[in-house]
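Let's practice the habit of predicting before peeking. Look at the sequence and jot down your guess about where helices and strands might fall. Then scroll down.
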Amino acid sequence: MSFSKSSVQVELDRFLKSLKESPFSFETISRSAFTQSRKKLHPSAFIELASEQLNSFQSKAPNKKTWKGYRPIAIDGSTLNLPNSSEIKNHFGSTCNQFEEMSLAKCSFAYDVCNELIIDARISSYKSCEKDLAVEHLSKLNPLSDILIFDRGYPALWLMGLLQLKGFKFCFPSKFCLERCFSHEQERR
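Done guessing? Here is the structure:
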């Protein structure tokens, strides 16, 4: 949580040193104990922490940055390499290259550009569509105050229609938008 690039043990030692005066101090924590405890963390803990951070910012931040009165929200996704376990492969999916089978997932983020905050994050199976994940972000966004900014892989007429129907202002890269939308329309005919 301190964004350090030190080893786990060095970070644990620093953390314990900072707690010396605390009633919760420990003499030492081994890397193995830390790793075993980390495995017991439920993923919902991170979702709750992120939600609390966002709620705290929304209610207590004295100066929320905007662009011309709007909150620019960048939406983008990526593919994640995950640890290779059968449980993870079964849940998220996998693919093979010439050397090995790899566990993969798709992730998507709605990011407040001005305030540098993740508003919503999603992780899904490797076969998921980034556009569908983007649609899932809409429930966390406000069509009156947010302008959605998409990357070149997102332009689709159905997505533009949905965004307009829900009242969102949005931006797709124009060259890619026109070329892609028209090529998809011709493919459908």
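How did you do? The radius of gyration is 21 Å.
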